[in-house]
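Aim 2 progress update. The chain analyzed this quarter is reproduced below.
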Amino acid sequence: MAVSYQNLKTQTLDDVRAAIRAGTYASHTAGLGQGRLQANLAILPEAYALDFMRYCQRNPKPCPLVGVSDTGSPFISTLGKRLDVRADVPAYNIYRDGKLAGSATDISEIWQDDLVAFAIGCSFTFENALQRAGIDVWHITNNTTVPMYRSNLQTIPAGPFAGEMVVSMRAIPNDRLGEANAISDRFPYAHGAPVSWGDPSKIGITDIERPDWGDPAPVPEGFTPVFWACGVTPQVAIENARLPICITHKPGHMLITDVAEDAEVPVLKQD
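Predicted structure tokens:
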């Protein structure tokens, strides 16, 4: 039986993860598991893992690497004792030869012994801090997925991985822009401070009402569109690399870790 987003917003991380793993919740994770670091996911063959790690290291703003599995292991022990990347994401995208081949809510049946999982920090983490400061986050309040756009900002290539930076947008009250900047800057593993604000055309966005991923969000009078680097960026690089197989999270559908969102280093503390 499906579990609603509104119900899960008040539940513990264990309850949220149980619903995701059981397949009774398959939607976005913004606002869920509050207090815990959320992560984008990229799973690819070991033959490409070193180049992908270099790509993340060269592009820490859109690709802040927070965890890596051992080859063939679906577990990232530094991010959660019971966390299983095959079933703990609400929805996955499956790419073959750089093309989106389908989506799934569990990837256990296509798991391979040569796969390596990479967890990349997510801006959903700093949204909790914005809300605590009294700055409304429209897509959370309205149960939609944050709007994401391909920009004209180029990433630094590594091996076959290259492409434009993807950005996410939130409308911020004009009189709180500095505060929103300072709050998000405290979370370098969640993309940190914005990369742009104001006129979307400055970074190559021609129609803010038509995001490439996610749902449109309004920019009311007295608000400014603010753009943060986004962890969907690796999906663009993966498409360009045309790997034989790669699995990612579906944009907006994140891996919720056991790590505290304000951890200076994203590693699970041992008991």
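The radius of gyration is 17 Å. The mean pLDDT is 92. These observations will guide the mutagenesis experiments scheduled for the next reporting period.
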